[in-house]
Amino acid sequence: MVTSEDRSEIVFFDVETTIPTRTGQRYALLEFGAIVVCPRKLVEQHSYSTLVRPSDFSLISTLSVRCNGITRDAVTSAPSFADVADKVFDILHGRIWAGHNIMKFDCPRIREAFAGVNRPAPEPKGIIDTLALLTERFGRRAGNMKMASLATYFGLGQQTHRSLDDVRMNFEVLKYCATVLFLESSLPDILTENSWVSPNAAIRCRTNGSISNGMGLIIDTPSSSIEIGSPMKSVAEAHIESDNPIFPLVSRHVEVPDLLEINSSRPDPFNLVQFSAEVRESIQLDDMKDEPASDSRDSSASTATGGYISYTDFLEPNKISISSISLSLRPLYRGTQKIQILHNNGELQVFSRCLKVRFGISTRFVDYAGRPRLSFVVDASSELCQLLDAIDNLAQKLIEDTGSMSEWRPVVNRKPGFMNCPTIRLNLPTVVDGNISRWVTEIYQKESSSTQKLMFSRFDVAELDPLISPGTVLDAYYSLDSYDYQQIAGIRLVAKKLIVYSS
């Protein structure tokens, strides 16, 4: 079998599925299409597409047919996914994946399809999500940045919503956008400001403070890490093949220079290592990689040394003065910035007692490769809500002042029907260790007179389900992490340590 190290091509792919018409209904794969592209010459090397027969034809609703035109009759004689799984795996595995909105839609559907036939899913060498990439770099000059809008903008015709057609249209749109950006980056500033270039071209890349990091490309680097509170450095598993300005290859380790020392006056719109560093910092894929040293003393009083977490630095909401909270923008890379939340000039970290779990472990959010990102929802006290609302307002104002167009998502959730009991979501950060995604939040179980650290061997979500279930009471130590990613911004609560009370 070809290994991921042997494959440097980019594979653009797209799936067509049924459209769920009721809560809890799953997607069913109806079509898969892909083209394999040489990243040096930007030419299509070969393609593959197939209709897929679903196991349940009732999932093909009228809404589904209206969307992509694929009827029950069209797939009656098509192969099942089990019949084509080997071919799909061979095309995708170990290559750089590319597509429009694939991180949120296509990647999860691929994983679901392989899980449905009890097969391991393919893994990418890296991912280029052109929706996030073009929204960030090309701006909204083409409207809502959907593929149909981009195709209309460049006069490429109508989108058919068939996999292979959409893939080729995606590839052409990306080349058109890259050409425009390349010309703009080559022009003198005076021409960029006063001639044919759209004034929206750099609206998301201004050096005076856009903090969005929605680049849409991630290089899969499970061994790299980001230390909280230290000058940002990251190692991206990438090597730039400079003979092509649009799709540098991903192959070897290159150390990214100190992010605080980079000249930010002219960001390079094609530097994929830059994209990797910015997005990895934005979504904090492995910001919790350093684990605290074990301590046999009472865990609530543990103090870390040598750069580890000190839980004495976590403050309860009633001990935090809102007037002592300040927010500032921390430089990241070539003009990008991130909100830093401080209390009395130190990083704000919160300790909340006796939180009641409203909804247990959720896997509906996914990372860059379609793997679940774990989280759960707890009820929030009025004191905690007051604190988080104040921080939310400050952060939203700061991010709006930078010119960001992202939609702000409040950290406190007040859905209709729950107005008297607002909730917050606590995220459990995970890192990839070989083929295993493991969570790095410290989890303890507290019984009547003792507190014991729980050790996990399989890192299966099923291990967490009975532990963090609705009605469970727990103490939580967590940090506040800002994000601005794929046109959505807000504050994420990242759990560093949980103490679960036995029922």
UniProtKB/TrEMBL annotation:
GO terms for molecular function: 3'-5' exonuclease activity; metal ion binding; nucleic acid binding. Residues 9-183 form the Exonuclease domain. The keyword Nuclease applies. Keywords: Exonuclease, Hydrolase, Magnesium, Metal-binding, Nuclease. InterPro entries: Ribonucl_H, RNaseH-like_sf, RNaseH_sf. SUPFAM superfamilies: Ribonuclease H-like (SSF53098). Its cofactor is Mg(2+). This is Protein NEN3. It comes from Capsicum annuum (Capsicum pepper). The lineage of its organism: Eukaryota, Viridiplantae, Streptophyta, Embryophyta, Tracheophyta.
